[in-house]
Amino acid sequence: MMAGFQDILSHLSAGGGILWPLALVCLLMWAGIFERLFFFRRLLVKDLPPDTAVGMALDSSRTLPCGEGLSLRLIQDFRSRRSGICMLDRSILRECGLRIRRDLNRGIPQIQVLAAVSPLFGLLGTVKGMIVTFDVMAFAGTGDARGMAAGISEALVTTQCGLMVAIPGIIMAMYLTRQARRATYRLDRLYAMLERQLR
Amino acid sequence: MPPKALKEKGGSALLYPEKGSGSFFGRSVLVYVTATGLALLVTLGIFAMVPWMIGPPPDASDLERMVSVQLRDLRPPEPEPEPEPPKPPEEKPPEPDVPMEQIMQRPLPEVPQMEPIPFTPDLRLSAVPGPAIAPPPPAGPMTFEAGEVDVAPRTMVQTPPIYPFRARRMGIEGWVRVRFLVGTDGVPRNIHVLEADPEGVFEDAVIQAISNWRFEAAVMEGRRVAAWVVTPIRFQLGGN
Predict the structure, then answer these.
(1) Is the pTM here over 0.90, yes or no?
(2) CA-CA distance, A75 to A82, in Å (whole number)?
(3) Nearest CA in chain A to B11
(4) What pLDDT, in 10s, does the model give residues A8-64?
(5) Chain B residues inside the 8 Å CB shell of A69
């Protein structure tokens, strides 16, 4: 375990200074991804069926079950503010829907930006490594294969790391975008059902 | 029950935002901590895959081990492997065996290491001990010691010498000091060994290598001149 960790550290330093910010980008990105994954899991997996949800929203005598599903959040929000006047209730319902909708997409653009930026970090490392290579060549001539190899390996390692951070990040960002779209769709449907039954 | 009732009350007030976001925020700290921890694991995993994809770096000792195995295989036909050291140019090892330090150091210390022997003709040169020295060759009118010229000869092509197989197998390290004349055309001539640490081991390889080197001729008062160069060449076995 310890040896593996030191192996990683030595490779981080072998890639020049570029790999540290790349590791930071990777960390931030995955923190965001996991936060969103938890969020959607709570929101979508533990959700109520829509009919039950509509019934609960309209009948204020029923106690709400504990939980944090999407419908439940909308209903809790709505019921705690409901006024009883039809027109006012509709606008209150819309406001609740908008607040939840804002939460759904929170953080996903940041994840996409981080995923898109990491190959650029790799590219920066490539350029830096090539500069090192040419410095060695200017200094020691082309006979020094070892010195040149150090620069080239720096270039390749950073490129590789950038891509390895970016690929899963982009996939996860796509997945999260789809989850957000699904949640939005569900929210819209519930909202429409509720609005129809309000009176 | 009482807290829930309180919440209901607070929720029914007009200042509603705290209710939803408050409880949600209290939980989200835990979520963020967990997410960061998991992200740390994933990051470590990704960066642990990098060395694994690259594979272990080719170690110099690995190469030596491979070579020694080869030698053992070659042994049974007795007369064949013995004359191996003299014909190194045929079997170029995939990697230059001369260690990094030597290659990196050579261009830099070249100038200081060329020994500025003051120009006291004949006397000084013949005073240098050692039978290996050829008599100072009458190389035309323009022959200078490296310390005297304005611009010392600079290496253009410098192939590392080939580590003699027997020395490598027996783990011998050492050095050779050579002196040679870089002509106006940049070709080294009159290569001879001044000193060698284990004698009779590396000299041939060094002479072979240096005769392949090419230089930019020394310059003295704007003209290219021939100049003597003295340089040590170290032989060190693997290990970075």
Answers:
(1) no
(2) 10
(3) A80
(4) 777 777 777 788 899 899 999 999 999 999 888 888 877 777 777 777 777 777 777
(5) none
